[in-house]
Write a structure and sequence with these properties.
The protein has ten helices and three strands, in the order αβααββααααααα. It is mainly alpha-helical. It folds into two domains: 63 residues, Winged helix-like DNA-binding domain superfamily/Winged helix DNA-binding domain (Arc Repressor Mutant, subunit A, Orthogonal Bundle), CATH 1.10.10; 134 residues, Four Helix Bundle (Hemerythrin (Met), subunit A), CATH 1.20.120.
Length: 210
């Protein structure tokens, strides 16, 4: 029997639906409806909504529920700039060692194979996309960068899920672009990586903000 507190279950379920795009920006969520779906009272759902509002995922509406906060152009731009800085810095560090760069590229190739297998499972693909980019940052060994990049994870997964749902032809292009990024790391070409990463992220974010 699941011993997870009702408020935690409501929090996890609602957050997961937001991150995978099952509920969209601007959509109204009713505490009553969520409570009925989960088989709990309104109180734990209200507590869950308060937590999600603190994470800027919901805007609370008194006596009505909450609205899912849309991804704004400013948020998308800020996220893009931070990812360019963190991933680019990580690759420059990785490129100092041929053995390290090649090992990272090999692991990225394995993740790309998994992405091909998940091409029709958009939520899983979004998770693997996050794993691909996170592996680049984690492998560089900068603990501060790792923690900061980790804090961007929810926003990254949400934007990726929204993008591939809006344009399912995007998946194959993203896989091809991931292969190009891995190849740049394999040959220790940080300049090529920076250029390819910029094009890769811009194409994704343009779909989200159409």
């Amino acid at each position: 029997m699941d011993q997870t507190p009702a408020s935690e279950r409501a929090y996890r379920d609602t957050k997961s639906k937001i991150l995978v795009g099952a509920v969209k920006g601007g959509q109204l969520l009713s505490e009553v409806a969520v409570a009925a779906e989960l088989g709990v009272s309104r109180t734990p759902v209200h507590e869950a909504f308060l937590r999600l509002a603190a994470e800027d995922l919901l805007d609370l509406l008194p006596r009505r529920g909450a609205v899912v906060v849309p991804i704004s152009p400013r948020e998308a731009t800020d996220l893009l700039e931070m990812r360019l800085a963190l991933e680019g810095s990580a690759v420059r560090r990785l490129c100092r060692s041929e053995a390290t760069a090649q090992a990272v590229a090999a692991e990225l190739a394995r993740l790309i194979d998994q992405q091909r297998g998940a091409a029709t499972d958009l939520a899983r693909f979004a998770e693997l996309d996050d794993a691909f980019h996170r592996h680049i940052v984690d492998s560089a060994g900068n603990c501060i960068a790792q923690r900061f990049y980790g804090s961007l994870g929810d926003r990254q997964r949400r934007m990726m899920a929204d993008a591939v749902q809006a344009d399912q032809t995007l998946v194959e292009r993203l896989i091809a672009e991931h292969a190009e990024l891995a190849q740049a790391i394999d040959v220790r070409d940080a300049t090529a990586f920076d250029a390819r990463l910029l094009a890769h992220l811009e194409s994704t974010y343009e779909v989200v903000l159409r």
